[in-house]
Design a protein that fits this description.
- Helices cover 25% and strands 24% of the residues.
- By secondary structure, it is α+β, with helices and mostly antiparallel strands.
- The longest helix has 27 residues.
- The termini are far apart.
Length: 461
């Protein structure tokens, strides 16, 4: 009896895949027979244990193993890779980091099975070159951990395979920067749109299923919120729509009510990411017309102290956090803009997410009489929890008056890192010069701008 006419087209495809798998298995066994000779009868018995059953189809474990192995991506290990990791509530990204004494670089020493790190291709021995848009090849271990912790629930790692890293270091030296420069324009936009009489001000073009592109109405709400022309839609209220159908997208937009937050990427950003082979990563996003942001407060202790109480309690997501209460009127905390109910995010630029009450208090006390705090109010806290991005990626500075004679704009992240060797200016008088600066991990440039009340000049403190 001829079996082929009784098989469906899907079964024929599955049978063809099985034959390919058997041919691959026989090739492997031949190679093993050369390296480690075995009994041919044992080899034959291994290849004859499985009998194809069309009813099992793709659920057959042998077929599943064959499809899970992607042999075509091995060449990608020869260049830096981008791993966009996401952690679930109460869990980690799924990898462990170590720094080898006397050697440059930060090494992934263990990857937990079944975690985001494993799913995104992170491997043991990978060297971390950058965290989001910050190159960390030559940074201290503590700085790298600080960047990862400040990234919140999602982080983009640029990594290089260990053997490639070692060869490059041997050829180019330890001072060479192996991380490819990321163009500052390669940033998606997080745009908050408030509906007006013309709606949200955009329509959607698409195929049968995403991706989706936005067509803007001239002068509409979306255009005013910073959505670039021809933008690709990536997320709606923190939820990826890459695999949505048009009906699912319309339902999601309808459920948003009068306000919606979109993560979008303009055509030039999409093209640049395609050239670099990097994902359109949400942690790289820049904020446009956001309803709220975290605030950086600079406090100087007075005779009666700072004037606030720090208390540990459960936050909006059910996790314990450090909250600021009993802000005394007229004292430094209130003058700096602190509000009762604010949640503390960072002390002196370092994230305190996940730290206990005593450790947080000790970090504040270690700053002495001048303290820089990053806080967020409940409304902004709910917003960033919805979009699944760390508030520390979207800091805004708060102008504070430190004395009647001077006005100081504190940097968003103050560090005590020593200057990079070779960049120090020669002693003696020098003329005007241009300094091209790039924001640090919190958006600050690392200096304070001050002025004297009796004169019009500005100076760097």
């Amino acid at each position: 009896m001829d079996l082929v006419p009784t098989l469906s087209p899907r079964s024929l495809i599955q049978l063809w895949r099985l034959l390919q798998w058997k041919m691959h298995l026989r090739g492997v066994m031949c190679l093993l027979s050369v390296l480690c000779p075995v009994d041919l009868q044992d080899t034959a018995s291994l290849t004859q244990k499985f009998t194809f059953n069309p009813k099992l189809g793709i659920d057959n474990p042998v077929l599943s193993l064959a499809e899970d192995q992607d042999h075509s991506d091995l060449w990608k290990l020869e260049r830096p890779r981008f791993c966009l990791l996401s952690k679930e509530e109460g869990k980690s990204f799924g990898f462990h980091l170590q720094q080898q004494l006397g050697r440059v670089g930060h090494v992934v020493c263990r990857v937990e099975p079944g975690t985001s790190a494993q799913r995104q291709g992170l491997r043991e021995g990978d060297r971390i070159l950058a965290v989001n848009n910050d190159v960390v090849e030559h940074e201290d271990y503590v700085v790298v951990v600080r960047y990862i912790r400040a990234s919140g629930p999602r982080v983009l790692l640029t990594v290089l395979a260990q053997h490639v890293h070692d060869v490059a270091r041997a050829q180019q030296g330890n001072d060479t920067q192996l991380c490819p420069p990321l163009n500052l324009r390669v940033r998606p936009r997080l745009c908050h749109i408030v509906k007006d009489e013309g709606g949200f001000g955009f329509s959607v073009t698409h195929g049968a299923r995403g991706p989706f592109w936005l067509v803007l109405s001239a002068g509409g709400a979306a255009e005013r919120a910073g959505v670039p022309p021809g933008a690709r839609l990536l997320e709606v209220n923190g939820i990826s729509v890459e695999k949505f159908t048009s009906n699912q997208l319309n339902r999601k937009l309808w459920q948003s009510g009068d306000q919606v937050t979109l993560l979008v990427a303009g055509p030039e950003v999409e093209e640049e990411c395609r050239k670099l082979g990097m994902p359109l990563a949400p942690p790289l996003a820049e904020g446009w017309a956001l309803p709220a942001r975290p605030r950086c407060l600079h406090l100087e202790k007075g005779p009666q102290g700072f004037g606030f109480l720090l208390r540990e309690e459960k936050g909006l997501n059910g996790h314990h956090g450090q909250f600021l209460w009993e802000v005394d009127p007229g004292l430094p905390a209130e003058k700096a803009g602190m509000q009762a109910g604010d949640r503390l995010l960072a002390v002196a630029g370092e994230s305190v997410e996940g730290l206990g009450h005593e450790e947080t208090v000790s970090r504040i006390r270690a700053q002495g009489s001048c303290v820089s705090l990053v806080v967020i109010n409940p409304e902004a806290d709910r917003f960033f929890s919805m979009v699944r991005l760390s508030p520390l990626l979207f800091l805004e500075s708060t102008e504070t008056i430190s004395s009647p004679q001077a006005v100081s704009l504190p940097s968003l992240v103050e560090t005590e890192d020593p200057p990079v060797e070779g960049t120090a200016e020669p002693p003696g008088p020098i003329g005007p010069r241009q300094c091209f600066l790039y924001p640090g991990p919190g958006g600050g440039y690392g200096f304070r701008l001050c002025c004297v009340a009796s004169g019009p000049s500005l100076f760097i403190s």
